[in-house]
Amino acid sequence: MSRANTKLAPQPAPSTYRELIARFPLRPLHDGVDYDNAIEIAESLVGLGNMSQDQADYLDVLTDIIQKYEAVHHAIGSKATPLGTLKRLLEEQDMNGSDLGRLLGSRPLGALILRGERQLSKTHIRKLADHFKVSTDLFIGR
């Protein structure tokens, strides 16, 4: 079940774990709106200074989720290869080589790309960037 892609209204940080989960469930971040909402919640908790154990536990898991999203979507200057980035994105969406091939228009092509036997074309890169909602730069080797 997907959250609505809407920005959360500013509110004071909830004090219990249950209230925090109700406000922003701990799930993978799927887009920039999810990311912005997660950052807002994290900042509201960090700004408290004296957090309860529930708030500290929630913040610990939330920062792990934020870091995972940033590793893929904000990997500017990172050492991630285009193939490594593609594999991480596929894993995040529970996709395999066949799914990749179908997305690119040829089922066997997905496995060839994942094994490094075929390179991504400009058309493939555009399709992948559109599908995963990321920059084409992530799929271009430097």
Description:
The chain is an all-alpha fold. The chain contains 7 helices and no strands. The protein has helices spanning 17-23, 32-46, 53-73, 82-92, 97-104, 107-114, 122-132. Helix 2 packs antiparallel against helix 3 (53-73). The longest helix has 21 residues, at 53-73.
Structural features:
single chain, 142 residues, mainly alpha, 434 Repressor (Amino-terminal Domain), 2 domains, 7 helices
Layout of helices and strands:
Layout: H1 17-23, H2 32-46, H3 53-73, H4 82-92, H5 97-104, H6 107-114, H7 122-132
> What is the total tally of β strands?
0
Strand content: under 5%
| Relevant CATH superfamily of the largest domain | lambda repressor-like DNA-binding domains
Structural class: mainly alpha
H/I helix tally: 7
Distance between the termini: 37 Å
Q: Largest sheet, if any?
A: none
Mean pLDDT: 84
CATH architecture of the largest domain: Orthogonal Bundle
Total domains = 2
Q: Class of the largest domain in CATH?
A: Mainly Alpha
> Gyration radius, to the nearest Å?
18 Å
Task: List the helices and strands in order.
Answer: HHHHHHH
How much helicity do the residues have?
Answer: 55-70%
CATH fold-type name of the largest domain: 434 Repressor (Amino-terminal Domain)
Q: Name the poorly predicted regions.
A: none
C-alpha geometry: elongated
